[in-house]
Design brief:
Protein name: Fatty acid hydroxylase
Largest sheet: none
Distance between the termini: 74 Å
Strand content: under 5%
Main location: membrane
Pfam family, one: FA_hydroxylase
GO molecular function, one term: iron ion binding
Organism: Pedobacter lusitanus
Radius of gyration: 21 Å
Order of helices and strands: HHHHHHHHHHHHHH
Amino acid sequence: MNIFQTFYDELTGFFGIGGIIKMVQSGDYGSLSTFEGIQHLIAPIIPFLLLIEILRAFFYKRFKIDEYRIPFLVFVINRLISRFISIAAVAFCIGLLEKHAIFTTTFTWYWLIYGYIIWEFSHFVYHALAHKVRILWCLHSTHHAPQQMNLSVNFAHFFLEAPYADVIRTSICILLGVNPALLFFIMFIDGFWGSFIHIGENVIKDGRLGFLNHILLSPSHHRVHHARNPLYMDTNFCNLLNIWDRVFKTYQDERRDIIIEYGITREMDPNSLWDVYFGEFICLGKDIVAAPGLKNKLLYIIMPPGWNHTGDHKTAKITRRSFIEEELTKTVK
């Protein structure tokens, strides 16, 4: 009986309908006017969009189980580990740093604007570091390994990525005065949008979302971020507001003349859970062992992916710059 209850809890938890079921069973709909009630209403949207995405793929005979199998397996692994570590990390950072905040904000609309700008900055810092520091890329690469874009990719993360991401983001926000209650509200909004922008062409063919493409970070922008095309590498690090990508010149629109190629640049088996989860760690380990001297071994850990002690660097920055310069040369000719 406990097995069935566990299965039921996991199923309702995945689809985010547990809160709605309890509300219907109790007959108390007054909670719909509270933040918790709103959370219960919004929680099922992404899982049901994923279901629609899969059903549409079946209907149009484009469903490939391999496109969903690895993200699902990664989700199962992380379900048991990552969420508890992440919650503990956030609580620890708030308790440790709140007393050191430069000032205190409140849960009001004008501080919400401030808080969201700070949150996006903190997300940009975490996300950029995940692409620019080799050991952090080893954690983040699991999310970039799928060679297609659909909502299941949202669940593909190395189990330690969420905790370290939340430590960085929470620390910056708390130190810069974002009220904890306000921070959790922002996390909720950002979590929903961060899931939605992984929606595939199966459901939304043109991910630009019309005029919103100029204001928000759209699914189109995030498809660019997940691409391995030279022009698209290491761009669009923001999550909802693309202000910091514009400030730090990492903003990139999707070009209609470039077909997106998803995945990471190294040769890998996207259908191997081992390669998706640990492949980058294995490659880093080989580079460290082969590197001469302690300094070079340490540099492989902290320098960007593609850095080489011989000077023959193949980083995303160099690859992208070479592509842009080559295009400019062709245009001049």
